[in-house]
Amino acid sequence: MSASTVETAAAPQTLALIDLPDAVRDTLGRELAAEPDPTLDIDRTMARYHQIFAGLPLDRLQRILDFGRHNETPGVGYVRNLPVDPELPATPANGGPAPDKKTFVAEGVLLGLSGLLGEPVGFLTEKKGQLVHDVIPVKGGATTQTNQGSTVFLNFHNDIVHDAVGRYDVSNPDFLVLSCLRADHEGVAATHYADARDISRALDSRTLELLRSPLFRLNAPGSYVRDVAGGREVLSDPVAMISGPEQFPEISSSANGVRAMTTAAEAALDRLQAACRETAHQVFLRPGEALLINNRKGLHARTPFTARYDGADRWLQRTYVRRSQWSIRYRQTEGDRRVHY
């Protein structure tokens, strides 16, 4: 057994810090600023972003590539000192996208990092199938368990996708990339990430046994419930919250509600959320920073913050990334091979 294997088995690293040198940041910024709106020709644009990001220092490039390739790598990567747009329009009050954005450096950062992990994909029930999601507080959604919320703690969850097969962890993205364009006014909004390996070690054996049993039903994402189901719950088939090998567990939870099927399962669900809080990494995203999130290895959350709806509110961008679209080809739309039902 190699030294790296021993280290992984004993205490795996679940957070990676990746800093770019100033000169690399500036070169990326110049090249991305020269690129047009990526949505005009997304496949050509993704190829161009591959060219640009191939210029990263080899050690940083390998760390990002390895993040998306290997089982034992960290579940979240914190990338800092990325380029930003020279100027930003007002934060869109309707949740974006901004029609008056003059340059697309932020979009280039987001999609360029995404392309190193897999392929950006969209779903019609999430941001109308857009590949770039603007994550912005919206007044009407302030108290919701969605990306429009602000005044409530966004529960630990991963991003799931409603699927008629009854499982919401089949079509969901393998990775998310979250990039910050503008922080909240007070700078208090934190993104948390709890890795399933850390969570499992924090739980007692009985709780872990219950969480590995099909005793839970996930509610569909808030966007689906709101836009398709008219506000009613749309529950999955009974599923386990944690699955897979002990060394490499996968975890799945809905921000919009999980229904435990027994009293013991309800208690296990409460303990799971507590374990997430105990083990989570905490990041205060600022402009020029991004998170690479493995959407299967862990759960993420967001702390409350005060939105003013004044054009200067918190503004993140997000992508859904899959290593392959092959297994969800039954959902592909006719009009766009990256967008799915």
Can you characterise this structure?
Helices cover 28% and strands 20% of the residues. It is of the alpha+beta class and 341 residues long. The strands form four sheets. Strands 1, 2, 3, 4, 6, 13, 15 and 16 form an eight-stranded mixed β-sheet that branches. It has a four-stranded antiparallel β-sheet with strand order 5-14-7-12. Strand 9 and strand 10 form a beta hairpin. Helix 3 (42-53) crosses helix 5 and helix 6 packs across helix 9 (263-279). It is globular. The chain starts with a helix and ends with a strand.
What topology does this entry show?
Layout: H1 3-10, E1 15-19, H2 22-33, H3 42-53, H4 58-69, E2 76-80, H5 105-117, E3 119-123, E4 133-135, E5 154-157, E6 175-182, E7 191-195, H6 196-202, H7 205-211, E8 216-218, H8 222-227, E9 242-243, E10 250-251, E11 258-260, H9 263-279, E12 281-283, E13 290-294, E14 298-302, E15 315-322, E16 339-340
Parallel strand pairs: 1-2, 3-16
Antiparallel strand pairs: 2-13, 3-15, 4-15, 5-14, 6-13, 6-15, 7-12, 7-14, 8-11, 9-10
Helix pairs in contact: 3-5, 6-9, 7-9
Report the biggest beta sheet as strand number plus sense, adding barrel if it closes: 8 strands, mixed
CATH domain class name: Alpha Beta
What is the CATH topology assignment? Double-stranded beta-helix
Cα separation of the termini: 45 Å
Gyration radius over CA: 19 Å
CATH superfamily: Clavaminate synthase-like
As a percent range, the share of helical residues equals 25-40%
Structural class: alpha+beta
Order of helices and strands: HEHHHEHEEEEEHHEHEEEHEEEEE
| Average pLDDT level | 95
CATH architecture: 4-Layer Sandwich
Q: Per DSSP, what share of the residues sits in E-state strands of 2 or more residues?
A: 15-25%
Number of discrete domains: 1
* Poorly predicted ranges: 1-8
Gross morphology is: globular
| E-strand count | 16
What is the count of DSSP helices, taking H or I runs of 4+ residues? 9
